[in-house]
Amino acid sequence: MKGRKESQIAAVRPVRCAIYTRTSTEERLDTEFSSLDAQRESGENYVASRRSQGWEVLPARYDDGGYSGATLDRPAAQQLLSDIKLGRVDCVLSYKIDRLSRSLLDFLKLIELFDQHEVSFVSVTQPFDTSLSMGRLMLNVLLSFAQFEREIIGERIRDKVAATKKKGKYCGGPPVFGYDVDRERKRLVVNPEEAALVKRIFADFVRTASTTALARQLNEEGGTTKAWTTQKGITRPGRAWNKGHIYRLLNNPLYVGEVAHLGQRYPGEHEPIVPRKLWDQAQAVLREQHRAPGVSTRAKTKALLRGILRCAHCGSAMGPSFTKKRGKLYRYYLCVHASKHGRDSCPTRCLSAGEIEQTVLEQLRAVFRTPEIVAQTYQEARAQVKQETTPGAAFSEREVVGALHSLEPVWERLFPQEQERIVRLLVKRVDVYPDRAELQIRAEGLTSLVAELSESTAQEEQAA
């Protein structure tokens, strides 16, 4: 009888238990018996109570001291997950659920990972086990309350920020060009050298109404945007100016001594840099530019290659734009890099919209009319989707050649909208070089077009 009991005990499968501990602060971690030690001791006692069921504590320690439970970006937690994936853990214990995670979504991801590797979870001070349905229910309820608590804390922080800004106080964040941060007093102080440049930018903008010219001039002078150092000692270098930086500077009410929050402005504690009259003049120019007909007309202006044209020199996109002279509209595509940093910053600069669109259409028609080019295009398109299942598998090379070849004679009779649809269907990207434009055919678009043409041909044959 005694031998049977011993054999039954020996047959119990060992349950390898990893004890995870965490604290949010590093205070008192160097004491003889820290909070992490207390959490681990509770876990060890719990495992000891299950020793008859084969439970045993793994010698490895998974201790995260001074880490928040809001994310899983913690070294010991990541090591624990790695060991679980390697099959070294059967059960995870923590003093409370929130020691492992305070985020409901993160915890659910952990539970899913545990299930995948047949690992259970036990909270030492909260009576449930995830291997049981009741334990899972209790787990979700408790985590829901933890998530609710986090949201309440977030609301309190947002309310505090709102109240602080209403009093005109500095609420942190990267310093603004023209100001430095007095971290002890928690307020903005004027940087005299930068402040002088801020005033000049406002004055020059009122005079020229051109953010692009301003950015180019600042860069030619060797200037950069704000350079600063974080509280952790990390240096954030300044960058070359572009018109986006200028617009943000011109629209920042800090420069007239105001603090903005949720559409409202409040008198700030900091000293203003820009006189109210100069600020109002700059805002008037900005409003006039916003009301200019080009803002809304640009979006409505025809642009066959919108979103697919790129400058091969600098790799930037080329967006549609236009200008009006003597009542006539002139369309062109402008390099985004040149638009931000000045037209002299890129040799491509701008292209006549009509000319580049005609070039692309002619290249497409060459594809339609030349069997060799069609065959090459087909093979390149198939290579793009070699590892995927696409409609292209349903068509032979001969069928693709025949379908596209039949399109060329009727191209001129198609409505402009239909031509544009086919271009956007077929062309993935157009790279513009000084002497040429190179098309990349969209593989899925090619097969879709061939399917349409084949269906159209079949319907015509049935009708005949």
Describe this structure in words.
Helix content is 49%, strand content 17%. It is an alpha/beta fold. The strands form six sheets. Strands 1, 2, 3, 4 and 5 form a five-stranded parallel β-sheet that branches. Strands 12-16-17 form a three-stranded mixed β-sheet. It has a three-stranded antiparallel β-sheet with strand order 13-14-15.
Biggest beta sheet summary: 5 strands, parallel
Architecture (CATH level 2) name of the largest domain: 3-Layer(aba) Sandwich
Residue windows where pLDDT falls under 50 for at least 5 positions: 5-9, 294-299, 387-393
CATH class category name of the largest domain: Alpha Beta
Based on secondary structure, the structural category is alpha/beta
Q: How would you concisely characterize the structure shown here?
A:
49% of the residues lie in helices and 17% in strands. The protein has 17 helices and 17 strands. Strand 10 and strand 11 form a beta hairpin.
